[in-house]
Specification:
Blueprint (H helix, E strand, L loop, with lengths): L7 E6 L6 H12 L2 E2 L3 E2 L14 E2 L2 H9 L3 E7 L2 E6 L3 H6 L4 E4 L2 H9 L5 E8 L3 H11 L4 H14 L8 E4 L3 H16 L8 H12 L1
Parallel strand pairs: 1-7, 1-8, 2-7, 3-4, 8-9
Antiparallel strand pairs: 3-6, 5-6
Helix pairs in contact: 1-7, 5-6
The structure holds guanosine-5'-monophosphate.
Length: 210
């Protein structure tokens, strides 16, 4: 099958709480992407549904999947394990369907290293400010202050990986952010580059790190 007919891999990464899960869902709805559903050993949050948000599995089952070479990539994020299943993803891509991945920088690095025969587009999502990030994390994991603290601490480390992504977007407004990502994807599908203001992005990263 020619490379042109294959679907594209669109990877969205961000420090936890920047809103990429919502972005992923909105984008897949609008652009009819297939969402790669990951496996995780993390416990489901309220309203999270097995096989819709994640395949929630025990550590033992996760290790079995690693041994059986079922993952395209897998990584430990915070205290839990996450992995992208090869099944479905390759089949969808080969059938010309675009697949969107909500994975961290470690998984992105592993996938890029594999030099697959599919076009890979990587997008890093940033929050508008540390205060906003704190608010979003607190709303999501209100039950556990420790988790929020831990994720805020991790933020400074995670953000440093922005340089390894094709595009950086700031999620200060969901509608605007979806529109920007859509423009990026549509340009890239035509083998063109979407212009971004690098200076503005660098300034925002400085602001987030202060
Ligand atoms: P959460 O627990 O908040 O849903 O996700 C925590 C982090 O794990 C997020 O940065 C998310 O993108 C990442 N993640 C989710 N699924 C995968 C996966 O399959 N592989 C990797 N490497 N990271 C993942």
């Amino acid at each position: 099958m020619s490379l042109k007919k294959d679907g594209m891999m669109i990877i969205l990464s961000s420090p936890s709480g920047a809103g990429k899960t919502t972005l992923t869902r909105l984008l897949s709805k609008e652009l009819k992407f297939h969402i790669s559903i990951s496996y995780t050993t993390r416990k489901p949050r309220p309203k999270e549904v097995h096989s819709k948000h994640y395949f929630f599995v025990k550590k033992k089952e996760f290790n079995k999947l690693i041994r059986k070479n079922k993952f395209l990539e897998h990584a430990k994020v915070f205290k839990n394990f996450y992995g992208t299943s090869k099944e479905n993803v390759f089949e969808k891509l080969k059938n010309g369907k675009d697949v969107i991945f909500d994975i961290d920088w470690q998984g992105t690095k592993q996938i890029k290293k594999k030099k697959l025969n599919f076009k890979i587009l990587t997008i890093f999502v940033l929050p508008p400010s540390r205060d906003e990030l704190f608010k979003r994390l607190s709303n999501r994991d209100m039950r556990d202050k420790l988790i929020v603290e831990e994720r805020m601490k991790q933020f400074n480390k995670d953000i440093l990986h922005w340089k390894n992504y094709n595009y950086i977007v700031i999620n200060d407004n969901l509608i605007k952010c979806v529109a920007e990502i859509k423009k990026i994807i549509l340009k890239e599908k035509k083998q063109k580059k979407f212009h971004q203001q690098k200076k503005k992005i660098q300034q925002h990263i400085k602001f987030l790190l202060n």
